[in-house]
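Quick start: read one record
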Amino acid sequence: MDFQWSADQRKFRQRVRSFLSATLPADWEEKSKFDTSSGYVSDYSRIFCPLLAREGLLIPHWPKQFGGEDLDPYYHWILGEELFAVGDPRSYQYMNVNWVGPAILQYGTPEQKEEHIGRIAAGTHIWCQGFSEPSAGSDLAALSTKATRTDKGYLIDGMKIWTSGASLADYCLMLARTSPERYDGISVFLVPMKTPGIAARPIPNFMGEFSLHETVFDKVEVPHSALLGEEGQGWKIVRQIMHNERIGQPRYSFSMRGLDRAVQILKSKDRFNSQSVRADAARARAALEAARALSLQVIDARAKKLPPSGITSIARYTLVQADKQVADFLGAYLNEELMDRSDLLLNAVYRRTGSTGLAAGAAEIQLNLISRDFLRMAKG
């Protein structure tokens, strides 16, 4: 097996790095604090993403007819590695290009594509994702938010929880129940966040400024054209979205950068000499490399247009464990630096690792999926 990037791929990576070096403001680290969910980064994304689009680097993996470059998923992954390593200036627009846009391209009507795809491809709008609910997070199919069909469209009532970036977003790709059937009663809707009846309230947390929300839909009226795909097709759509989401961001690249910074600090303070600290650093780095290798296996399957498999959940769970090792290393050997918040990168990495086991499906859910989809174990 060849683990080397091709000459074209290395050239593409350098192209991304050169763009970031020339584009990001000099005080990016200080103002962004590497918080993808902050108001500052969200506002900056509306400047940065159009520049990225004009450079041909926002959606290189999309078809040319929709503004992309027809590049294979490896190039999209390289782009993600480089962007995530600097704190991802796209903010929540990474959702747009990773799975919202592709879902609309696959299931949307010509009118929906005309309305949304151009905006996503231009980098001017932010989307959020309304999936989890207070009683339906781990068991997503148990969602209770209802969309009742009317003569004019649908009337949506219910509550979503977590909803990353909800108060920053222009649109929400959300799930609602259109009939009682557990799976066949779920549908997907494209809803403007300024629609009357929607209230997004940030939930204070240590992971990011606007990373978590409680989002209420109180008699929200949307037209029939807000339905993505057909009624009852939502579970099929969301399964494809979750496959893209679980390995949608190379989170390990940010953790690798944080671990490298940690080792650099320990060396500068002559605290990297003991066998235990060196061994723990090596274990954390090896775990991150394993997460990267498994993620690239998923990307390879996408490039070969193979159907999703249990490897996606294995890769995701491996990343959760790798991030935990990084967090444990920082806590064990750089606790004073974390407490005094003197290093913005270290603090951002430590906070980000705390969300890995929750975002894009809890770690425990990944284990259930591994037992079902990879090990083929009987339920119970």
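Strands lie at 127-130, 146-149, 153-162, 171-177, 186-192, 198-202, 213-223, 227-228.
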